[in-house]
């Protein structure tokens, strides 16, 4: 393995940094104030705390990975993170259709397109 530096476009590093901050903010919001994110969920029901804590940790992990990938300028790490992002938002897109929730459909579709675009740029530059 070589120790080459891959020069990613600065806009990808900026967008990834913003996503990292957003994911970390969502994680802390879910963990410390779940009622602000989960308005329609009975937070007193058995097992719900376990689910929202798992969700918060997943968001934290993704934000951390995005942050490290942007900081290290690491295309393989960015590829894995954006593949995860794509799969996650594709799942949200399906949930949006099942729940008939237009805002979720639109946001998930936009994020899927952003993920695909960044994946194409990152992997084209290898």
Please give the radius of gyration in angstroms.
16 Å
- Distance from first to last alpha carbon: 14 Å
Name the average pLDDT. Answer: 89
Shape: globular
Structural overview:
The protein is 79% helix and 0% strand. It is globular, with a radius of gyration of 16 Å. The protein is built from 5 helices and no strands. The chain is mainly alpha-helical.
Keywords:
single chain; 126 residues; globular; mainly alpha; 5 helices
Question: Can you summarize this structure?
Answer:
This protein has 126 residues and is mostly helical.
Topology at a glance:
Blueprint: H1 10-32, H2 34-37, H3 48-72, H4 75-99, H5 102-124
